[in-house]
């Protein structure tokens, strides 16, 4: 079972990499970009019997740092 | 006093730390591989060195913080054993939940590697007893992720409880409230981004870091 975990920075946490990407887009001439935030996409290949609670636990214990990041779990339809 | 340096794959300041600890304690520290499940008996001080444990994969310190030995380091810290985390060691301590907050990418994006002026924010900790409060010292930094972040409530608490040990006199990485180093609530765990072990004799360009180790050994004696 493919499961994707999206890890994003919490609001209010500075994202210098996102800022650099924003500047690079501007210097390429793309208008109308109001902001860029960079996150992570982690793909998990899981056994069918792995529970939602276990996936959440993985996120809280390792995949995301809850001090600075949020996560969202997206399960691929079987 | 018996001391130990925890060595992770990717640690690169472990030997510098060992030299500094030997100079201060008079005995070679135990070098403990991160896969170990026990610490040597009777340790007074555990050091988590700088470097790039696990190549900074996922987040700096995130994988190393879950190494088997870290359970023992946490247990030792709970018993009151002094723990010093420098640079990647600070990142490991925040990831392991031994210190609050997190170390983000430097605000200027670049890796910063140079001597930096610091201010001793508190001389009341076991780690800073040989310094004067507000004393200006110079210690080198070398990091990409040293931008200290915590929510306002946590920052207020750190300030209110006198738990900020060092501040940047020149904020080189965007750290909240110029924080360069903090201690835990009990005062026996210090994390700092600057490298005191790289400033322990005049040949290093200064010896402002030496007093941290000497003061700590004295405080723990």
Can you offer a commentary on this structure?
The complex is a heterodimer of chains A (78) and B (221). Chain A has two helices and three strands. Chain A is an alpha+beta fold and 78 residues long. Chain A has helices at 16-27, 52-63, and strands at residues 2-9, 40-45, 69-75. The longest helix of chain A is centred in the N-terminal third of the chain and has 12 residues, at 16-27. Chain A has a single domain (2-75), classed as Mth169, Chain: A. By secondary structure, chain B is of the alpha/beta class. Chain B has a single domain (3-220), classed as Rossmann fold. Chain B is globular. The termini of chain B are close together. In chain B, 55% of the residues are buried. The A-B interface holds A 13-14, 16-17, 20, 61-63, 65, 67-68 and B 58-59, 62-63, 66, 94-95, 100-102, 104-109, 147, 149-150, 174.
Classified in CATH, the superfamily of chain B is: Class I glutamine amidotransferase (GATase) domain
- What Rg of chain B do the Cα atoms give? 15 Å
Sequence stretches where pLDDT stays below 50 over 5 or more residues of chain B: none
Order of helices and strands of chain B: EHEEHEHEEEEHEEEH
What Rg of chain A, in angstroms, do the CA atoms define?
A: 16 Å
CATH homologous superfamily label of chain A? Phosphoribosylformylglycinamidine synthase subunit PurS
Short description:
The complex is a heterodimer of chains A (78) and B (221). With 78 residues, chain A is an alpha+beta fold.
Helices and strands, with pairings:
The complex is a heterodimer of chains A (78) and B (221).
Chain A: E1 2-9, H1 16-27, E2 40-45, H2 52-63, E3 69-75
Chain B: E1 3-7, H1 14-25, E2 30-33, E3 45-48, H2 68-78, E4 82-86, H3 88-95, E5 102-104, E6 112-120, E7 136-143, E8 147-149, H4 152-160, E9 164-168, E10 179-183, E11 189-192, H5 210-220
Parallel strand pairs in B: 1-2, 1-3, 3-4, 4-11
Antiparallel strand pairs in B: 5-8, 6-7, 6-9, 9-10, 10-11
Helix pairs in contact in B: 1-5
